[in-house]
Amino acid sequence: MRILSGIQPSGIPHIGNYFGMMKTAVELQDKGEAFLFIADYHSLTTGPEPQKLRDQVFGLALDFLACGIKPERTVFFRQSDVPQVTELMWILNNITTVGFLERAHSYKDKIAKGFVPNNGLFSYPVLMAADILLYQSELVPVGKDQKQHLEITRDLAIRFNNLYGEVFTIPEEIIPEAVAVVPGLDGQKMSKSYNNTIPIFGNPKSIRKTVMSIVSDSTPMEDPKDPTKCNIFALYKLFATPEEIAQMEANYRGGNYGYGHAKQALFEKMQEHFAPMQARRDELAKNPDYVWDILRDGAKRASAEAEKTMEKVRVAVGLR
Ligand code: ADP
Ligand code: TRP
Asked: How far is CA 5 from CA 42, 64, 208, in A?
């Protein structure tokens, strides 16, 4: 089974990225033939500063390798190292109506926030469809916010196959239900665009400070508290064992347990979880050539697959 996912390089990943996508990508690499890429072409839609983009690509490669992506199991590469994806996007553009893209949530959200969209942002879902279809992907692990992009991808694949013959595999998304949406510091969806994230890597002091800034209500320390309404508890559940979760629940309901205690417990659990990965990341960072070699090797393996699909596509549409 071919499993593929991608993520944009846009700073240190946060807990939402980790549980929504990275952890699933790591687990799935033992379940099938995994492809994972750093979506640097997609990042251009927001016009990053060039050196920053290069640094973030490298940083994200470190993050994934530190989190447990094994290059011998996963074809791990940089999107722009396989430029056939833009060729496929161009071809898909011609079976995509403007009205269809105008209905995309992420595009509408950006416009509603006052963003002046460029054509890249508008076509974002077509490039994403090209990513998925180029490698004949069957399963795509992503967070819930990407569901519509997968629907658009399926729609384009079906439309193409109807017009030109069976070329593309129709993909399905996998959304880790238990963690469909990880809440941020303020209780909204955790997202870089809302400035409410807890990074998975970084200086423990500054991560602790961030954890301590999680918004809670003003129930006094002594009073019993409802864990189901608490953001700290929701985050703690992602890291703790069932026994630890039951214990914290009892602490909340029992009273004399403050939100500060819960935040400290969450911070400690996070450290326990990410500290070994942080150590691995620090080691890898000392050896950039090794990391770039992994991405180059991944690109070679991905290109071979991409070419197979593109030859079929070129013939199907009459370019050969
Ligand atoms: P951000 O919203 O911070 O910009 P991205 O849009 O780059 O994050 O998302 C990268 C991946 O992480 C996607 O697969 C997305 O679904 C997942 N993801 C992002 N935020 C969350 C969240 N709060 N909960 C679950 N998954 C998330
Ligand atoms: N749009 C995805 C995100 O913001 C990233 C992405 C680009 C992707 N191409 C993809 C995810 C293909 C899965 C498959 O997270």
From this structure: 13, 12, 30
pLDDT at residue 178, as a whole number: 63
Q: Ligand 2, closest atom to CA 143?
A: 15
Do 2-181+287-317 and 202-281 come out as alike in CATH topology?
no
| Angstrom distance (rounded) from CA 305 to CA 245 | 45
Atom number, ligand 1, closest to the C-alpha of residue 197: 3
**Ligand 2 centre distance from Cα of residue 211 (Å):** 28
| Alpha carbon of 128 to ligand 2 centroid (Å) | 6
Pocket of ligand 1, candidates 105, 191, 237: which has the most ligand atoms within 8 Å of its Cβ, to mutate?
191
What pLDDT is recorded for position 179? 65
Q: How far apart (Å, rounded) are the C-alpha atoms in residues 237 and 246?
A: 10
| Domain locations in the chain as residue ranges | 2-181+287-317, 202-281
Residues 57-87: pLDDT tens digits?
Answer: 999 999 999 999 999 999 999 999 999 999 9
For the CA of 140, the nearest ligand: 2
CATH number for the domain running over 202-281: 1.10.240.10
The angle that helices 288-317 and 84-93 make with each other, rounded to 10 degrees, is 40
Nearest ligand 2 atom, CA 131: 12
- pLDDT-based confidence at residue 21 (cuts at 50, 70, 90): confident
Q: How far is the CA of 247 from the centre of ligand 1 (A)?
A: 29
Checking if the pLDDT of 97 tops 90, the result is yes
Question: Which CATH architecture is the domain 2-181+287-317 placed in?
Answer: 3-Layer(aba) Sandwich (3.40)
Name every protein residue with a CB atom under 6 angstroms from any ligand 2 atom.
Answer: 4-8, 39, 42, 128, 131-132, 140, 142, 146, 149
Residue with tokens 């416009």: 111
Single-letter code of the amino acid located at 106: S
For position 180, what pLDDT does the model report? Answer: 67
Ligand 1 midpoint to CA 190 (Å): 8
Are 276 and 268 in contact by the 8 Å Cβ rule? The answer is no
